[in-house]
Specification:
- Helices cover about 65% and strands about 0% of the residues.
- The protein is an all-alpha fold.
C-alpha cells in the first residue's frame, strides 16, 4: 500500500492511537490493524479452520471495531475488546456454515472442513504437528493459542473468553497434555503465521470499505 501513516520511533499505545483516530486521524487505524492481524488470524484459524473464512472474519471484526470505536469505554484493553468482537464474528460464521451444511446433502467427494488446517498449514511443519494442533477441541485450542502463541496473560485470556481464570489454567494444561509433546519451540514461528502480503490485503480491504482510502 502507499501513503502509509507516519510511524515514529516512539512506541505509540493503543489508547493514543484511538484518541487520535477519533480526533480525525482516521488513517492511523491501519496501525491497529497491522498490530493485531497476526493475533486475529490465529484466533480465526483456531475456530474456523479455513484461511478464507478467517480472513473474512478479520475484515468484518475490524470494520465493526472501527464503527463502534466512539463507544469503546476502555473498561478492558483494546486488544481484549477486539478479540471479543473477533470471537463473536467467528462463532456467527460457524453457525451460518453449520446451517448451510445441514440444508444440503454432502456429495461423495465432500471434504471435511477439519482437513483445511492440514492443507493450509505451512509446508515446513511436519504432519504430526499440524494434526496435533488441528485435533485439539476448540475450547482448548483457543486457550492454547492465546496463552502460548499470543502470550496473553491468564487474566487477559479469561477476560477475552469470558471464563474463570482457573478454567484458563485447566484448559491450557489439558491442551498441552493432548498435544503429547512440547510444541512451544515451533508454534510462534510456524503455526498460523500471517505473512506481510496477507497483512497488506486485510489493511487495504478494511480501509477501502471504511472510506479511509480511495
Amino acid at each position: 500500500m502507499t501513503d502509509q501513516p507516519d510511524i515514529t520511533l516512539r512506541p505509540v499505545s493503543d489508547e493514543e492511537l484511538i484518541a487520535r483516530i477519533l480526533a480525525g486521524e482516521k488513517r492511523l487505524f491501519e496501525l491497529l490493524i497491522r498490530r493485531y492481524n497476526q493475533r486475529l488470524y490465529r484466533i480465526g484459524m483456531s475456530i474456523l479452520e479455513n484461511e478464507a473464512e478467517a480472513e473474512d472474519a478479520m475484515q468484518t471484526a475490524y470494520i465493526n471495531a472501527y464503527e463502534h470505536l466512539p463507544g469503546f469505554e476502555q473498561r478492558s484493553s483494546f486488544g481484549t475488546w477486539l478479540i471479543r468482537i473477533m470471537l463473536n464474528q467467528c462463532y456467527e460464521q460457524k453457525r451460518k456454515r453449520r446451517l448451510i451444511l445441514t440444508n444440503f446433502e454432502q456429495p461423495d467427494n465432500f471434504v471435511s472442513m477439519s482437513t483445511a488446517v492440514n492443507e493450509l498449514a505451512n509446508k515446513e511443519l511436519g504432519n504430526a504437528l499440524r494434526q496435533a494442533v488441528a485435533k485439539l477441541p476448540e475450547k482448548y485450542r483457543l486457550v492454547f493459542v492465546l496463552r502460548e502463541i499470543e502470550d496473553l496473560s491468564v487474566r487477559e485470556t479469561s477476560a477475552a473468553l469470558n471464563i474463570e481464570e482457573s478454567n484458563v489454567k485447566v484448559r491450557l494444561n489439558r491442551a498441552k497434555t493432548m498435544l503429547r509433546e512440547n510444541l512451544d519451540g515451533y508454534m510462534k514461528s510456524h503455526v498460523y503465521s500471517f505473512h506481510l502480503a496477507k497483512c497488506d490485503r486485510i489493511v487495504d480491504h478494511v480501509l477501502r470499505h471504511l472510506g479511509i482510502i480511495a
